[in-house]
Write a structure and sequence with these properties.
Elements lengths: L3 H11 L2 H15 L1 H4 L4 H21 L3 H17 L3 H22 L3 H33 L4 H16 L3 H13 L5 E8 L6 E7 L4 H9 E4 L3 E4 L5 E6 L2 H16 L2 E8 L2 E10 L8 H13 L1 H31 L6 H15 L4 E8 L2 E9 L7 E3 L4 H8 L3 E3 L2 H4 L12 E8 L2 E9 L7 H66 L3 H29 L2 H5 L1 H17 L2 E7 L7 H20 L5 E9 L2 E8 L16 H10 L3 E6 L5 E8 L10
Parallel strand pairs: 14-15
Antiparallel strand pairs: 1-2, 1-7, 3-5, 4-5, 6-7, 8-9, 8-13, 9-10, 11-12, 12-13, 15-16, 16-18, 17-18
Length: 689
C-alpha cells in the first residue's frame, strides 16, 4: 500500500489526535444514531480516538496489521450487537471523511493533497476488502434474510471506494443501482453548488446515442413535469435540448406506472442528489423490498457520493485552471503577436475549453458585428450583423453572457446555421468598451453555469491578447517610423551636406576657371572629388544599414566586421573586432536587432564621444551570446542624460524586443561600454523565429 503522504500525516496526527477524534465522534453521532445518539460525547470520543489511532498505525506502518488485529478481537462482539456490513462500511467512510478533513488542513500544496487523497482511497478500498474477505461469510451466515441486501451494499461500497476517479465512482454506482432491477437504467443527479439545481452526472443502461443525449440534457428544476419520489418529495423535469424534451415528457407516465422511481440522496440531513432508477422490462413495478434496497445502498454510500461530487468539482476546477493557464500561454506567446493569428487562436481555444463543436468571433465595426474568425463547425451564415436590428446585436448591446438551450427556436432563421443546437454567447469587455462577441456552439448536453464562468474568464484573457497584439503592431509601426526619421537625419547630416558642399565647391571652381585662376580651380576640383567620394561612402553606409547583405550570408560577426571597416574608412576611427568562443548563428530577428544596437553605439562613438578607437567584443558561450562595444571617448553621466538622448531609447527598445539584458556603463572622461546579452532560444540558426 502506498503510504508516502499517509505516513507523513499519520506521524503528525499521532501527536495531535484529539481534533480528529472529536470530529469523527460528531460524524458517528450524526450518521450512526442507532449506536451513538444516546452515548455521552466523551465516551463516543474515546471510541473514535481508538479508531483514529488504529488507522494511524496502519498509515505509518504501511500495512493493515493494526486493523486486522482490531477486527479479529472484536468481530464476534460486533456480530452479537447486530453490527452489519453496512455499519462497518459506513463507519469506514466516516473515518475516511474525518481524515480528508484533516488532510485539507494539513496539506497546503494542492499536489500533496491530491496524492494524499489517492493514497487514502486505496487504503479505504483495502479496509473494505478486509471486511469482505474476513467477515462477510460470518456476517452473511447470521443474516441470511439480508443476504441479497448486504451483497449489493458491499458491491456498491467496494465500487465507490476502489475507483480513484470521481466520474468513475459515480458511473460504477449508477451501474450497481441499475443492477437492482431487471433491464435497469439509472441516472444520478447531483446538486450544483453554484445554482442549487440538480444536473445529471452519471448514467447507465442507456444504449443509443439519442438516449444518452437526452439523458445529458435532462435537468431537475422547480417547474416542468412534476414527479414524486419514494420519499414523497416532488421534482420537476425539464430539458436543455430537443432530444431530452420528449424524454422529460414520458418520464411522468413511467413513474406513475411504477417502472421508474426517484430516490433522494442525503448525507447528514443535507441534500446531495437524486437517483432515477427505471426498468425496460415489460410490466416491471417497484416493490417495497427493491425500493428499500436501493434506498439502503444510497444511504450507505451517501458519504462517498458527496466526496465524489466534491472531488468532481475540484477536478473540474483544476482542469479549468490548467486550461486557462495553457490558453493564456498560447495567446501571449503567439508568434510576433499578429492579430490574425491571435484571432484564430481565440476561436480554436474557445471551443476546446468547453468541449464545443464550433466557435465564432465577432468584432464591432461601426454599425455592424463582423464575423472575423471561426473554428470547427457550424460557421456563420452571413458575415455582417446589424448592431441595431439583429439578435446578436441585442446581445452585444446588453453586454451579458447568455446560454441558448435551443438555437433553432430562439435565434431567427436568417441569423443562424441550421446545424446549431446549443449556444453560449459571451461579450468581450474592455472597461466601458465592448470589442465584440465570442460564441461557442453544439456542446453535447448543452452549456451550464460552469461553462458560463470559464468562458467569461477566457473572454477576459482573449481581450487582453487582442489588445496586446494591436499594441505590438502599433509599436512595430512606431519602430518603422523611427527608422525612417533616423535615416532622414542621417541623409541630412551626411549625404545632403556633402551634396551641398559639392554644389558650393563646383560653383567656386567654375568662377575660378572663368576668371583664369586655373591653379585655384584645380584645387577646388580635387576638393570636389574628395567630397563626392565621401558622399558615396556615406550613402553606401546608409544602404548597408538598411539591410546589410553580410547579415544573412555571414551572420552577426561578418556584418559587424563589414560595418567596422566602413567606420574606419569613413571616420578614420581605429576599429577592432574580437571574437571568443565557437561562433554560431542566432535567429535572424535577434541578429538584426543586435546589429542595429551595434550601429547606434558606433554612431555615438563617431559623432558624440570624440573617441579615437572603438572595440567590439563578441563572446559566444553555451546558452548565451554577449556583445560589448567599448570606446575611449569622453563618456557621459548617465544620470543627467535625457531619456532619449544619443539614441539610447532606441537601443533599449531594441533590446526589449529580443528580451536581451542591456547594460550601459559610462563616466565623463572615461569612455563608454555598452553590453547586450541574449540567451539562446530554440530554432535554426540564421532563420527567423
Amino acid at each position: 500500500m502506498k503510504n508516502e503522504k499517509l505516513k507523513k500525516i499519520g506521524e503528525y496526527l499521532l501527536e495531535n489526535t484529539d481534533a480528529v477524534a472529536a470530529y469523527l465522534a460528531e460524524l458517528l453521532i450524526a450518521n450512526q444514531p442507532r449506536w451513538y445518539a444516546g452515548m455521552e460525547f466523551e465516551k463516543c470520543r474515546e471510541i473514535a480516538y481508538g479508531r483514529v489511532e488504529m488507522n494511524l498505525g496502519c498509515f505509518t506502518r504501511g500495512d493493515f496489521v493494526p486493523l486486522e488485529n482490531h477486527f479479529l478481537s472484536c468481530a464476534e462482539i460486533k456480530l452479537d450487537r447486530g453490527v452489519g456490513i453496512r455499519d462497518l462500511v459506513e463507519g469506514t467512510m466516516l473515518s475516511k471523511k474525518a481524515f480528508i478533513n484533516a488532510g485539507q488542513e494539513f496539506f497546503e500544496d494542492k499536489n500533496d493533497l491530491l496524492i494524499f487523497l489517492h493514497e487514502l482511497e486505496e487504503y479505504s478500498a483495502g479496509v473494505l476488502s478486509i471486511i469482505t474477505d474476513r467477515y462477510s461469510s460470518m456476517l452473511l451466515s447470521r443474516l441470511n434474510t439480508e443476504h441479497v441486501r448486504n451483497k449489493l451494499l458491499l458491491e456498491a461500497s467496494r465500487t465507490v471506494t476502489s475507483a480513484l476517479d470521481p466520474d468513475e465512482v459515480l458511473s460504477r454506482l449508477a451501474e450497481v443501482l441499475a443492477g437492482t432491477v431487471g433491464e435497469g437504467c439509472c441516472t444520478i443527479f447531483l446538486v450544483d453548488s453554484e445554482t442549487g439545481g440538480l444536473a445529471p452526472c452519471a448514467g447507465f443502461g442507456y444504449g443509443s446515442k439519442e438516449c444518452q443525449s437526452a439523458l445529458q440534457g435532462l435537468r431537475l428544476c422547480p417547474s416542468g413535469n412534476t414527479l414524486s419520489g419514494v420519499d414523497g418529495k416532488s421534482y420537476g423535469f425539464c430539458s436543455s435540448n430537443k432530444a431530452s424534451l420528449s424524454f422529460a415528457d414520458i418520464l411522468p407516465d413511467a413513474v406513475r406506472s411504477g417502472s421508474a422511481s426517484l430516490f433522494h440522496i442525503t448525507n447528514s440531513g443535507r441534500m446531495v442528489g437524486v437517483a432515477l432508477v427505471s426498468s425496460d422490462q415489460p410490466g416491471f413495478t417497484f416493490d417495497e423490498a427493491t425500493s428499500e434496497l436501493i434506498g439502503g445502498i444510497l444511504n450507505t454510500v451517501a458519504v462517498a457520493i458527496e466526496s465524489a461530487a466534491a472531488a468532481r468539482r475540484t477536478k473540474r476546477q483544476l482542469l479549468e485552471s490548467e486550461s486557462l493557464r495553457r490558453v493564456a500561454n498560447v495567446l501571449l506567446e503567439c508568434p510576433e503577436g499578429k492579430e490574425s493569428k491571435v484571432l484564430s487562436l481565440i476561436a480554436e481555444e474557445a471551443r476546446t475549453i468547453v468541449n464545443g463543436m464550433g466557435s465564432v468571433l465577432m468584432l464591432h465595426e461601426g454599425d455592424y458585428l463582423h464575423c472575423v474568425c471561426s473554428a470547427g463547425t457550424p460557421k456563420c451564415p452571413v458575415e455582417f450583423y446589424s448592431v441595431k436590428s439583429s439578435y446578436y446585436g441585442r446581445v452585444f448591446k446588453e453586454g451579458k453572457t447568455i446560454i441558448v438551450r435551443d438555437a433553432q427556436s430562439e435565434v431567427p432563421k436568417a441569423e443562424r446555421n441550421d446545424e446549431v443546437r446549443t449556444l453560449i454567447i459571451v461579450p468581450l469587455l474592455e472597461g466601458d468598451k465592448k470589442p465584440g462577441l465570442l460564441m461557442v456552439s453544439n456542446k453535447s448536453g448543452g452549456f451550464d453555469s460552469a461553462d458560463k464562468r470559464i468562458m467569461e474568464m477566457f473572454a477576459a484573457q482573449a481581450v487582453l491578447a487582442l489588445r496586446n497584439s494591436r499594441m505590438f503592431e502599433q509599436s512595430e509601426k512606431l519602430v518603422v517610423q523611427g527608422e525612417r526619421q533616423r535615416l532622414a537625419r542621417e541623409l541630412h547630416d551626411s549625404v545632403t551636406q556633402a551634396l551641398y558642399a559639392i554644389t558650393f565647391c563646383s560653383d567656386a571652381a567654375v568662377r575660378s576657371l572663368e576668371s583664369g585662376k586655373e591653379t585655384a580651380a584645380i584645387e577646388q576640383l580635387k576638393a570636389l572629388q574628395g567630397m563626392a567620394q565621401q558622399g558615396m561612402r556615406d550613402m553606401r553606409s546608409l544602404i548597408f544599414d538598411l539591410h546589410p547583405p553580410e547579415l544573412e550570408s555571414e551572420g552577426l560577426v561578418g556584418a559587424i566586421q563589414a560595418r567596422l571597416n566602413s567606420v574606419e574608412i569613413r571616420s578614420g576611427l581605429g576599429a577592432d573586432l574580437l571574437v571568443e568562443g565557437d561562433e554560431r548563428r542566432l535567429p535572424l530577428r535577434v541578429e538584426e536587432e543586435i546589429f542595429r544596437i551595434a550601429i547606434e553605439a558606433l554612431n555615438n562613438s563617431t559623432k558624440h564621444s570624440k573617441a579615437e578607437s572603438v572595440t567590439v567584443h563578441v563572446d559566444f558561450v553555451e546558452g548565451e551570446t554577449t556583445v560589448k562595444i567599448i570606446d575611449d571617448g569622453q563618456g557621459f553621466d548617465i544620470a543627467t542624460l535625457p531619456t532619449g538622448g544619443m539614441g539610447l531609447r532606441s537601443i533599449r527598445e531594441r533590446a526589449d524586443k529580443i528580451n536581451a539584458e542591456l547594460v550601459i556603463a559610462s563616466e565623463p572622461g572615461k569612455g563608454t561600454v555598452l553590453t547586450v546579452k541574449v540567451f539562446d532560444v530554440e530554432g535554426d540558426g540564421g532563420e527567423d523565429e
